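Bit of a strange request maybe. I'm writing a small parser for C-alpha cell strings and I need a real example to test against, not something I typed by hand. Could someone generate the C-alpha cells for this chain?
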Amino acid sequence: MWKVEGVHSVYGKTDAWFKRFYDAEMYANYIRKLEWNKTEIREDVLNAEVCSLQQEVYTTAVKKGWHDRKSTFGDFIALCHSELSAALEEYRAIGNVSAVSYENDCDTGKPIGVPAELANVILRILSFCGSYKID
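Reply from user aminoacidic:
Good idea to test on real output. This should exercise your parser:
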C-alpha cells in the first residue's frame, strides 16, 4: 500500500485522486461515508461522491494534457482496452491479481500490477465522462 504522505502518482506528482485507489485506510473511510442502509447504498450519496471524483479526475487530466485534443469514442475504447490488456499481461507475468510492486523497487515509484492497471481504466473512464459531460 502507498503511504498517505509523499505519494507520487504515475504522472510524477502527488495527486489526491490517484492516492484514493491505493490507500486502504482512505478507501475504508470512503466506504463508511456512503451511509450503508443494510444491503443498500443511498443512491444520492453515492452519486454525489462519484460526480465529485469524476470532476477531480477530469480537472487533473486536463492539467496533464490528456485533453489537448478531443479524442474520439474509438480512441477512448482503445485506451481502455490497452489498460485492460496491460492488466492481463501483469497477471500472466506475476500470477496474482492483488500484488503491487513499484518501479525501481522503491515505494515512491510507479505502481506496477493488476490493481494499478485497473485503476488506470477507472481514471480513463472518469476522465472521458468529464470530457463529454456524462454524469
